[in-house]
Request: fold
Amino acid sequence: MSTQRFDIRHAPAPRESFRLLYISKSKFGGDWNSTTHTHSCTELFYCLSGEGQFYLSGQLFPVKPDDLVIVNPQVEHTELSLNASPLEYIVLGVDKMEFLFNRADTSYAIFNCRENRERMVTLLHMLLAEADRSLDGCETVCQDLLEVLLIWVVRCTTLSLQLEEAPRTENRECAEVKRYLDANFREDVSLDLLAEIAHLNKYYLAHTFQREYGISPITYLNRRRIEESKHMLGNTSYSLAQISELMGFSSPSYFSQCFRKAEGMTPNEYRRQTRQGKRPAPTKRHEV
Reply:
């Protein structure tokens, strides 16, 4: 009998604070709408097949099978595929972790992992299967597999990990949309227009804006209009129809509906209470 024994002389490192947020497998089709965007987490893309390009911080980089694309938080990016050879990849979103690259001013990188394809693809498909089944202990298994995967990424590259949580920064696209709404709330504004301004899919924009500010873009727009209308109700003699038109509402009835929902009373009731001294007349809001 032949035996090989290996003693583990060191205690395992403490469990890390980073966490797998999501994992998905995608293949480009004719209906793919590629738009640039950012995330508050780190993303890792493993290209399984096909060819395409990655747009990263204003530059285009070709990608091919077994390329690993690493994108740190708040890096503007998107994926582009060649129609003749549709790009297929698995992507992971990891929270509370960033990669440290050789250059301090770099927030993304692309590595080819062909020599380690079998190991990498096996781990990724195990992660996908575990997340898909969602059995008891799924979160623990996914975390274990993620840590093994990241160890292999570090071993196969010249990278290291930064596990301290970086200070949260405001999403750039959401901040741009918010500034636009503050400056143009009297205009005819739609979610499609805001998505065009931010260069984002409108559903992704609505989700990200809600996560960033706790309110949808259109609800924020209406609240902004309501605040200005309160000033006009308390300090001018404009009719409801005039105020509705000046504030960009589609009709006086929609204005009244939004006002009642926000303030718990009709615009006329608000005006009457203000004039009777039951509530102070609001001052005009100034943007800094």
The CA atoms of residues 86 and 204 lie 23 Å apart. The chain has two domains: 19-162, 172-275. The domain at 19-162 is CATH 2.60.120.280 (Jelly Rolls). The radius of gyration is 26 Å.
